[in-house]
UniProtKB/TrEMBL annotation:
<dbReference type="Pfam" id="PF25568">
    <property type="entry name" value="AAA_lid_At3g28540"/>
</dbReference>
<feature type="region of interest" description="Disordered">
    <location>
        <begin position="475"/>
        <end position="519"/>
    </location>
</feature>
<keyword id="KW-0067">ATP-binding</keyword>
<feature type="compositionally biased region" description="Basic and acidic residues">
    <location>
        <begin position="320"/>
        <end position="340"/>
    </location>
</feature>
<keyword id="KW-0547">Nucleotide-binding</keyword>
<dbReference type="Pfam" id="PF00004">
    <property type="entry name" value="AAA"/>
</dbReference>
<dbReference type="InterPro" id="IPR058017">
    <property type="entry name" value="At3g28540-like_C"/>
</dbReference>
<protein>
    <recommendedName>
        <fullName>AAA+ ATPase domain-containing protein</fullName>
    </recommendedName>
</protein>
<feature type="compositionally biased region" description="Basic and acidic residues">
    <location>
        <begin position="484"/>
        <end position="507"/>
    </location>
</feature>
<dbReference type="GO" id="GO:0005524">
    <property type="term" value="F:ATP binding"/>
</dbReference>
<keyword id="KW-0460">Magnesium</keyword>
<dbReference type="Pfam" id="PF14363">
    <property type="entry name" value="AAA_assoc"/>
</dbReference>
<dbReference type="GO" id="GO:0006950">
    <property type="term" value="P:response to stress"/>
</dbReference>
<dbReference type="InterPro" id="IPR003960">
    <property type="entry name" value="ATPase_AAA_CS"/>
</dbReference>
<dbReference type="InterPro" id="IPR050747">
    <property type="entry name" value="Mitochondrial_chaperone_BCS1"/>
</dbReference>
<dbReference type="GO" id="GO:0016887">
    <property type="term" value="F:ATP hydrolysis activity"/>
</dbReference>
<dbReference type="InterPro" id="IPR003593">
    <property type="entry name" value="AAA+_ATPase"/>
</dbReference>
């Protein structure tokens, strides 16, 4: 035993020997029923002499299939704060097989100091005595941590030390965790008893950051400010009575960096990402269940919200008469506004609105919800009104500021004589950052990231895009003109026909007059 244990028991002195003697007498000579009675009283008697108290934190608490949050926090805290003082440590690979986790080994004791008092921690496990098949993930072994402290520190330990350990442990877990990218499973496969959750995940490893994102510096700064303010506003949200969540709408043409921006946000905030595939969700109940199963400190994204084509398409086929007309009209909101007869099998717009800011949306807190779209104008205004989608961010075609970020990232170039021409061309041409980036990254051994070659290639590509756009514009104008001419021709033909009909009617009317005259 360690010196700490000797120190702890030193206070008991000679009281221990008679107790041991008494215990052996009880074991050997007293009948079992009476022994139980005596044991209870002996424990009470011992407690009078023993000035030390114990608190046990078990691995599995009331939530039988989930490891207790407190246990995990203690484990993290001890590994971080005290493990180095232990003589027996154990090292394991984390779940992602990258991080090495060093923690206190079983049956080992470590000490901790807090506000001038000493606390002894003891890690151990006990075997379940029951002769039953265990449903616990760890078989019938139950691990636990036990802390021992002098009873005069009871209040300090319970009111201050344990909350401190919980807070520190959670912070350490958060710092060391591998962030995850989740996607929703088809509801047919949900089965918590077989470990099939509503979400499945992979490690989130997207390298995008705000530094690598091509965007106007002021706009980028505004987004970063907004995110920081959100992260630090837990109390403020509580004070004004709002759920601690924020909605962003990212809109713009393809390849302008909407998905990249989400990855940069997740990396900046250190959040998990839940990528919600709406077409795999059968109804509003499933949608709610998915939301409940997300954790705090996460970004929930629905990409291309205007393109939930499959299931809206199906819906429109169901709604025969009116849908035939509507199906060609892409400007209509895609999600149904009114519940329908077979609503139990559909996600409706109201279900989605509830998902974003219904009562359920407040559980957990610290969530960001992001929609992306190429066509903001196609979305139902109710879906994107401020308060639901608090901030609308336009991701635009590449401008010179954005290009400079890409040139720095891809070519390590901050200044170049060709920049002037690139700037002039970009001001006159709509080219997405994705296309610009593609030209700055020629995957050929010969050109191997030579800035001159890349920039010349880029200038050619912008010129070509410009010419194509101009040609498309000319063609568009020609089509419009032809349409106009055709309309004019049709109007003239119609007018001619009407005049002819008028002429045909005139003699008849004249004849009528004559006839009348004869009368
Ligand atoms: N603003 C940007 N900054 C840096 N890289 C960008 C930017 N925009 C696009 N890219 C590059 O182009 C690729 C495609 O971008 P991304 O997927 O983010 O576009 P998107 O706007 O989400 O397109 P879509 O509307 O088709 O989903 C990215 O992998 C990234 O390398
Ligand atoms: Mg995208």
């Amino acid at each position: 035993m360690t010196a700490a244990v000797v120190e702890r028991w030193a206070g008991l002195g000679s009281a221990v020997a008679p107790l041991i003697f008494l215990w052996s007498v009880v074991q050997n000579y007293v009948p079992p029923t009476f022994r139980l009675y005596l044991t209870t009283w002996a424990a009470k008697l011992a407690a009078c002499f023993n000035p030390y108290l114990e608190i046990t934190i078990s691995e599995y608490g009331a939530e039988r299939f989930q490891r207790s949050d407190f246990f995990l926090a203690v484990e993290a805290y001890l590994s971080d704060a005290c493990a180095r003082r232990a003589r027996k440590l154990k090292a394991e690979l984390g779940k992602d097989s990258k991080n090495l986790r060093v923690s206190v080994d079983d049956h080992e004791e470590v000490t901790d100091d807090f506000s001038g008092i000493t606390i002894w921690w003891y890690a151990s496990k006990r075997q379940s005595k029951a002769n039953v098949i265990s449903l616990y993930p760890g078989g019938d072994e139950r691990r636990f941590y036990r802390l021992v402290f002098h009873r005069r520190h009871r209040e300090l330990v319970v009111d201050s030390y344990l909350p401190f350990v919980l807070g520190e442990g959670r912070a350490v877990t958060l710092k060391n965790r591998q962030r995850r990218l989740f996607t929703n499973n088809a509801s047919g496969s949900w089965n918590p008893y077989q470990g099939k959750s509503v979400w499945s995940h992979v490690p989130f490893e997207h390298p995008a950051t705000f530094d690598t994102l091509a965007m106007h510096p002021d706009e980028k700064e505004a987004v970063i400010d907004d995110l920081m303010a959100f992260q630090e506003s837990k109390e403020y949200y509580a004070k004004v009575g709002k759920a601690w969540k924020r909605g962003y709408l990212l809109y713009g043409p393809p390849g302008t960096g909407k998905s990249t921006m989400i990855a940069a946000m997740a990396n900046f905030l250190d959040y998990d990402v839940y990528d919600l595939e709406l077409t795999a969700v059968k109804n509003n109940t499933e949608l709610r269940k998915l939301f409940i199963e997300t954790t705090g400190k996460s970004i929930i994204i629905i990409e291309d919200i205007d393109c939930s084509v499959d299931f809206t398409g199906k819906r429109r086929k169901d709604k025969k008469a009116s849908s035939d007309k509507d199906s060609d009209n892409d400007d209509k909101p895609k999600l149904p506004i009114e519940p329908e007869k077979d609503d139990a099998t559909k996600v409706t717009l109201s279900g989605l609105l509830n998902f974003i800011d219904g009562l359920w949306s407040a559980c957990g807190g610290e969530r960001i919800i992001i929609f992306t779209t190429n066509h903001k104008e196609k979305l139902d205004p109710a879906l994107i009104r401020r308060g639901r989608m608090d901030k609308h961010i336009e991701m635009s075609y590449c401008h010179f500021e954005g290009f400079k970020v890409l040139a720095k990232n891809y070519l390590d170039v901050i200044e170049h004589e060709l920049f002037g021409e690139v700037q002039r061309l970009l001001e006159e041409t709509d080219m997405s950052p994705a296309d610009v980036a593609e030209n700055l990254m020629p995957m050929s051994k010969k050109k191997k990231r030579d800035p001159d070659v890349c920039l010349i290639g880029l200038i050619e590509a912008i010129k070509q895009t410009k010419e194509e756009a101009a040609a498309a514009k000319v063609k568009e104008a020609e089509v419009a003109q032809a349409k106009k001419a055709k309309e004019k021709e049709e109007t003239e033909v119609k007018k001619g026909k009407e005049e002819d009909q008028e002429k045909d009617k005139a003699p008849e009317a004249a004849n009528g007059d004559i006839k009348q005259g004869h009368k």
